[in-house]
Structure formats: structure tokens, C-alpha cells
Design brief:
Elements: E1 2-4, E2 16-19, E3 22-25, H1 31-43, E4 48-49, H2 57-60, H3 65-80, H4 106-113, H5 125-144, E5 149-152, H6 174-184, E6 190-194, H7 201-207, E7 213-220, E8 245-250, H8 256-273, E9 277-282, H9 299-311, E10 316-320, H10 326-342
Parallel strand pairs: 1-4, 1-5, 5-10, 6-7, 6-9, 7-8, 9-10
Antiparallel strand pairs: 2-3
This protein binds N-{4-[(3-aminopropyl)amino]butyl}acetamide and zinc ion.
N-{4-[(3-aminopropyl)amino]butyl}acetamide binds at residues 17-19, 116-118, 157, 160, 168-170, 196, 198, 226, 283, 285, 292, 321-322.
Length: 344
Amino acid sequence: MKTIFSPAQQLHHGAREFTDGQWTLCNEHPGRSSIILAELEARKLGDIVQPQDWGIDPILRVHSPAFVEFLQNAWTQWQAEGRTGDMLPSVWCSRGMRTNRVPESLDGKLGYYSFDSGTPIMSGTWQAVYAATQVAITGAHQLSLGEQGAFSLCRPPGHHAAVDQYGGYCFFNNAAIATQFLLDSGCNRVAILDIDYHHGNGTQSIFYQRNDVYVVSLHAHPSEEYPFFLGYEDERGDGIGEGYNLNLPMRLGTDWALYGATLDHALQVLERHGTEILVVSLGCDTFHDDPISRFRLTSENYIRLGEKIAAFQKPTLFVLEGGYAVDALGINVANVLTGFLGKR
Ligand code: Q9C
Ligand code: ZN
């Protein structure tokens, strides 16, 4: 099974995010991919290859042209204004405000196109987020060629990114772009299984009114955890998409006993739906030692998790999302893939 990775993804390295009233070092940084790559190489889990360049069109199948153009030009415009720090928003369009006007000012645009203060744009962001989409698409292409599995080692992650909004360390929704690419390649009954600790609000919103992609997400309950404003159990899809979205939120402190059982349930639902191809938004921030999360999975649990997904017996694309306990991240991600490969 191939891992796809582009060194250009490392060009995104934001300095700080805003947490607890303080500037803290970004949790989402290049060291995350480096440690995963090192562990995959040490375990000889398959070739690590660079992505092909599929251009911008597959991105535009998911994201709006204005949003893509904003991300492409934001840093250049920021520099032209003589500003030197990372770009971070500090005001957003909220209830009662004008949500349909794009301001001319860069600070206004930042607030218009984003939803949190943890996701800086800097000099290498565009190159990295573009590369991450190509990594995701190349993984999807592997499946369309008939491969049974592929791992798109994406960073920055993607599942919080919506059609025209970024946040939660995510800019382009890599998993959604890969999924759309599979549909456009003639695949049917593609499902997304999101097992990042956080609800994939972006993925949900992209497919919410559609019946061509079934989206199932296991995550910390949004009443207690980021992103707070989406991911509740009563969100089941809208219009023709009704019944094509399933949220399985769990309380803080959840361990493998509940998590494993919930994953079994999710896979049963996907089986009943008739899923033919699976895109897994893989976050290892469900780990007990994750610095920003409060689930209690162990490194060993990730092997079992990979085995469960293997037992589902569908071609599977893993797309990397979160996971911030960097010392254990390589082991945890490699454990998922080891469990998956061992039971194929
Ligand atoms: N300092 C993923 O796991 N927390 N994203 C923001 C601001 C955001 C996590 C707090 C957590 C996002 C892909
Ligand atoms: Zn996460």
C-alpha cells in the first residue's frame, strides 16, 4: 500500500495560535508529518511516493472560486501592505451581521473566510495546502486504479474546511476533494468515515444536501468540544441529503470500550448503506495523551481500529487529519495502517 506525501506540505508552519488568552505555539506543525514518515519507513509499510499534479479543477469541484483565489493571493497581498506577521483573523461575521458581503479589507476578508483564531496563513501556506490536495487526489487515484488501500499523508489537515471557510488548522478539505474525485472517476456509493477527535464540520456541510456521499463521524460531543456549533446527533442531512449524514458524538473521557463499539456500529450502518469505497478521515487526536483532546485511546487500540476497518473489506483511502501528541503520532498512525494491512 502506498503512502503519498509532498515535501511542499512542510512549507506551512504557522508560528502561533490564540489559546487561553495567550499566544501558544501552533499544534499543527511540520514535525507531525516527519515523525509519521520516519515510522512508516522504519516499519517498511510500503512505498512513499510524491503526488501527481492534478491542477486546480478538482479543488474547484468542492470549494468556491472566490475562496480559492483568496487563499492563493492572501499572503502576497498581506506583504504588499507591509505586514509581516502571520495572518490571523480577529473579527468574524456573526449573528445579525451581513454575511453576504465580502469586505475589501484583508482583515475583513480574513474574518469572512474563516471561523477561528487557530489557523494562521503564512508565506508557504498556499503551496502547502495546494500540495495537500494533490496528495489526497493521488491517493484517490490509486483506488480508482483498483488498489485496495492508500494513505494520503496530508497536512495541513482538511475536515474542518467548508466550501468557502477555513479554520481548525484546515484550509482545503482534502478528504472531500478526494471523495469528489472518486465520484468524478465513475465510482459510486462512496462513504466518508471521519474518526478524527473533532467533528468534521466542513465535510458535513459540503455533503449535507447531497445523497451521493454518506458521511459518518465519530467525535467528541460538540456541546463539550470544538467546533461547538456543529456535530450534534440530530443533524441527519437536508433535502435529498436527509439520512445521508450520521453523527455519533461521545462524551469527554471516552475510552476504547465505547469507541470500538461505536465504530462497529458506524461500520454496520455503512454496510447497510451499501458502501463500495471508503474514505477515512484519520485523526489520531483521540489518543489519551493528546494535548488538546480528551478521549482515552491507547497506541495499541489503533491496531484494533485498523483491523476493524480492514474487516469492512472495501477499498479504503486514509486521509490524515489531526493528532498532536507528536512523540506518539508516528506509532499511532502506523499502528492503524499495520492493523489494516495485517487483516487484509
Ligand atoms: N487555539 C484538527 O484536529 N482548536 N483540528 C482551536 C484555538 C482547534 C483541530 C483553539 C482544534 C482544531 C484537524
Ligand atoms: Zn481533530
